[in-house]
Amino acid sequence: MKTVVIVKAKDPAPGPSALARQGIREHAADMTIRHVVVAALLGALPVAAIGCSSNPSTSSTTTTAPATTSTTSLESATWTAVWPTTASSTRYQTPEAAAQGFATDYLHMVNPVISPFQQGDARSGEVPVQPGASGPVTTVLVRKLGPNNSWWVLGAGTAAINLSEPIWDASVSSPVTLMGTSMAFEGTVQTQVREDDTNKPLGEGFVTGGSTGMGRFDGTLAFTKPSARYGAIVLYTTSAENGTVTEAMVIRVRLG
């Protein structure tokens, strides 16, 4: 992220469930004001100005979920998160480890640079991620969830990609309409629809925004019938030099 863009809060779409509203409010309240751009991927409700502090941790990166935790109860506790998967035994003990796993295993970044955790409150905050020693910043939103209070990724944002439709926790069906603004090499932003517990996208495509400045994009993305209830919309750019992922925006959606 070269420059943090302050995005005006947007009212949530009418009619979301009480659970969705609660989730949006809870997580939007954890955002720091200088990363309001990330709040856009949580439905963009008013954001509390919470100070950040650097809080790096050196504890172990992963653990195994308790065998007594049922899949149903775990899904209920972690439905807002896109990573890790409830089906796996991977659980992260530090926010940096969660961001590292998300960047490498979910976004498929190559050797990303993980900056120290920037704390919002006792349970949440942000981890800046770059594709190398320099380059755009992807802000990874993390929070402690579940019975063992491990760290989970709620989504990610970057200043160069602003998705206005769909919003966080929207119900989407194929083809899904993607609208927003972006800036990328030759204007091209790659798009995916993902479902939980699998690395293979349900659908892939691209939209075209600005190339030398932020420009509007408006497109659709078809995807195959999902088997999971939840998933994510993923927008990302790639390096003109080697094709690796450079930055990404990820929001949680319900699949229909």
Query: On the 0-100 scale, what is the average pLDDT?
Result: 80
Biggest sheet features: 5 strands, antiparallel
Give start-end ranges of low-pLDDT stretches: 1-60, 63-68
Beta content: 35-45%
Order of helices and strands: HHEHEHEEEEEEEEEEEEE
Number of alpha- plus pi-helical segments: 4
Radius of gyration: 17 Å
Output the CATH topology of the domain at 161-255: Immunoglobulin-like
CATH C-level class of the domain at 161-255 is Mainly Beta
How many β-strand runs?
Answer: 15
Explain this structure:
This protein has helices at 18-28, 36-39, 71-78, 95-106; strands at residues 62-64, 90-92, 113-114, 118-121, 124-130, 138-145, 150-157, 161-165, 170-172, 176-182, 188-195, 203-208, 215-221, 230-238, 245-255. The chain is mainly beta. It has a domain at 161-255: Immunoglobulin-like (Sandwich), CATH 2.60.40. The strands form four sheets. Strands 3, 4, 5, 6 and 7 form a five-stranded antiparallel β-sheet that branches. A five-stranded mixed β-sheet has the order 9-15-14-11-12, with no helix packed on it. The longest helix has 12 residues, at 95-106. Residues 1-60 and 63-68 have low confidence and may be disordered.
In short:
With 256 residues, the chain is mostly beta strands.
Write the layout of secondary structure elements.
Layout: H1 18-28, H2 36-39, E1 62-64, H3 71-78, E2 90-92, H4 95-106, E3 113-114, E4 118-121, E5 124-130, E6 138-145, E7 150-157, E8 161-165, E9 170-172, E10 176-182, E11 188-195, E12 203-208, E13 215-221, E14 230-238, E15 245-255
Parallel strand pairs: 9-15
Antiparallel strand pairs: 1-2, 3-5, 4-5, 5-6, 6-7, 8-10, 10-13, 11-12, 11-14, 14-15
